[in-house]
Amino acid sequence: SRSGTSTYATDGTAPNPFEAAIASIAGCAGVYAHKACAAAGVSSAGIGISLKPSVAGNPTDIRKIAVKLSCPEGFDAALIPQVLASVGECPVKALIQHGDRVEFSID
Asked: Rounded CA gap, 13 and 32, in Å?
């Protein structure tokens, strides 16, 4: 079980929930990059992840999310395809790409 506190805001003092949802793609990519490295028996230390959404007008009208990984010096280039394939399995990416239904209700 995990517990913790997250703070969100809509006044610019903290990420808003939409920004946090988009940022979760980078977190998911990190988990899957680490998973691929562990399977290959190498350290994931030093792998960097950056995320840049491209928007059209309204900041919530995202057209593309570019996620870039950077590998540390000395990282085996032969492992890069495996890392990218693993990152491609990120379930957060799948949720955004496929537009799975989210339904709200009040009980």
From this structure: 30
